[in-house]
């Protein structure tokens, strides 16, 4: 199956306008997925829904799934399908440990164009009032949950309502060890309040390594929500059907609980249980408009020495930026992840140009959701400089080490090799940077004032120092809770361009890092940057010298070598 990032929606449905709720489904594209998706199609919610399906390893037919969408998808629901061409799960060659989909739940949570995010495994299903009942109780809370039914493996008969496991904070058999528990399928999370918790879908609990399978991400998410947002909404209604299948490591203990407590099972004993939804064809086939795209350039496959994340508006400066990546002297394969913040009709032309220039040792993924994740362009994430793209692409990276580059800056050829040599077992490494005049080519001076590392420079007291994202390399898994911060600017930042300050403050407080002590980033000064007047004042004569050289070049008084 070819890599895909595509949203199926009616032509009249504006997918840039945030949906009322999103549902995230990690899947193998197996037959059971149809039941899960139908149960969302048949929700009684009066509002719009985005279903995001992330494929970990395709086992079924895309053609069959598209037929389901054509015949049954209602007009108020859009379906986003994502298969990157590789698994993000460590057991299948990816970088992330969770057995149930690697980093897909985290990635899709941030990709969702909705404030409220629910979750569903591809072998379970919702009752028709599941989403509406959750939305009715979440209100101003950070999260809410429903109850669930245990169902036989074939999905035809209820066993009993789960009254002992997924029953919320400070309840049930997990009260002593975990402070309670909520199953993944039962959540509704306000991601603008509880955004750090979403990263923990990519983290496992060492107490839940069973048969060499790493689990416990649901415990990690619950623990974080419970600690930081103790007041949750509870529908008190079982509106999830959870199948006890052969892959369920706890199936035997659950059957034993039923036996030990003499719980009555079967359809007659489980009033209110809703069976698997039957196919419900539309009066006429759905008008399917496909939006978004995923382009994979290059035949080299991971894991890679470094993954490079570049959010872009497809400005012309992207091409020289990429050339600076192509010229890196680091040994080994590289992965470049380009996230398009606002799509346009020129994407295919860009793909052709980039493909023409791409070296053999580099894989490039051009990630085009078809809508912006940034509030700047109508999305839900507050950061104006890329929305959630840096976060999403960090979870997609096929290297333990991730570096960041803006689409108007450039690296010196030894940038990555120096960072990779320096980072070792530390959480992050960083270089210095050289200020470049707004003309894009005239060097001004090395930045010895702002992006200089922990507890140094202008931001010492406010942010424990600072390192510009273009100078940074992180070990992504060990910096997990920093990744959601790319979506959040400072509360008082009217420009909404300061998420990098929060990322850095987290790294400085909780991580260990090291500097290469070399300025290997060319950072182009932007007169529109709120910091520009202060920078030029600090730089003083160095700025005036740069201005003079740039003016002489523009006037044709002398020529200089391009960077």
TrEMBL record:
Entry superkingdom: Bacteria
Stored Pfam families: Glyco_tranf_2_3
GO MF term list: hexosyltransferase activity
InterPro entries listed in its UniProt record: Nucleotide-diphossugar_trans
Gene3D superfamilies (UniProt xref): Spore Coat Polysaccharide Biosynthesis Protein SpsA, Chain A
Annotated protein name in UniProt: Glycosyltransferase 2-like domain-containing protein
């Amino acid at each position: 199956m070819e890599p895909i990032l595509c949203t199926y929606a009616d032509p009249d449905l504006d997918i840039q306008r945030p949906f009322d709720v999103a549902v995230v489904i990690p899947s193998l594209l197996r037959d059971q997925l149809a039941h899960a998706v139908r149960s969302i199609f048949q929700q009684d919610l009066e509002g719009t829904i985005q279903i995001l399906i992330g494929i970990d390893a395709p086992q079924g037919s895309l053609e069959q799934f598209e037929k389901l969408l054509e015949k049954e998808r209602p007009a108020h629901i859009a379906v986003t399908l994502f298969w990157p061409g590789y698994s993000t799960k460590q057991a299948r060659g990816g970088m992330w440990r969770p057995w149930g989909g690697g980093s897909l739940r985290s990635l899709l949570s941030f990709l969702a164009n909705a404030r409220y995010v629910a979750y569903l495994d591809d072998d379970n299903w919702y009752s028709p009032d599941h989403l509406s009942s959750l939305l009715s109780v979440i209100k101003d809370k950070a999260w809410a949950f429903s109850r669930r039914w245990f169902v036989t493996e074939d999905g035809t008969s209820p066993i009993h309502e789960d009254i002992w496991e997924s029953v919320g904070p400070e309840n049930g058999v997990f009260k002593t060890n975990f402070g309670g528990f909520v199953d993944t399928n039962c959540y509704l999370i306000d991601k603008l309040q509880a955004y750090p918790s979403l990263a923990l879908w990519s983290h496992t609990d060492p107490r839940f390594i069973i048969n060499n399978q790493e689990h416990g991400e649901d415990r990690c998410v619950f623990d974080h929500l419970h600690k930081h947002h103790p007041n949750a909404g509870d529908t008190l209604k079982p509106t999830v059907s959870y199948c006890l299948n052969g892959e369920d490591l706890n199936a035997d203990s659950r059957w034993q609980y039923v036996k030990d407590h003499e719980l009555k099972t079967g359809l007659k004993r489980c009033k209110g249980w809703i069976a698997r939804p039957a196919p419900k064809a539309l009066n006429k086939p759905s008008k399917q408009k496909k939006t978004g795209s995923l382009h994979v350039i290059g035949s080299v496959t991971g894991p890679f020495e470094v993954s490079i994340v570049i959010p872009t508006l497809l400005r012309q400066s992207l091409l020289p930026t990429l050339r600076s990546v192509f010229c890196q002297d680091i040994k080994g394969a590289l992965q470049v992840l380009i996230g398009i913040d606002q799509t346009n009709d020129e994407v295919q032309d860009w793909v052709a140009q980039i493909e023409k220039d791409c070296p053999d040792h580099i894989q490039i993924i051009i990630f085009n959701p078809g809508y912006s994740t940034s509030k700047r362009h109508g999305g839900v994430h507050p950061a104006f400089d890329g929305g959630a793209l840096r976060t999403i692409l960090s979870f997609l990276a096929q290297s333990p080490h991730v570096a960041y580059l803006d689409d108007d800056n450039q690296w010196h050829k030894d940038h990555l090799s120096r960072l990779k040599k320096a980072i070792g077992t530390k959480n992050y490494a960083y270089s210095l940077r050289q200020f470049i005049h707004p003309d894009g080519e005239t060097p001004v001076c090395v930045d010895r004032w702002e992006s200089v590392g922990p507890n140094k420079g202008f931001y010492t007291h406010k942010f424990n120092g600072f390192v510009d994202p273009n100078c940074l390399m992180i070990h992504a898994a060990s910096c997990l809770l920093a990744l959601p911060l790319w979506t959040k600017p400072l509360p008082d930042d009217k420009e909404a361009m300061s998420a990098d300050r929060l990322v850095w403050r987290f790294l400085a407080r909780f991580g260990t890092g090291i500097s290469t002590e070399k300025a290997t980033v060319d950072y182009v000064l932007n007169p529109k940057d709120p910091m520009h007047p202060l920078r030029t004042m600090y730089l003083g004569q160095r700025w005036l010298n740069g201005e003079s050289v740039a003016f002489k070049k523009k006037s044709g008084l002398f020529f200089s070598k391009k960077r």
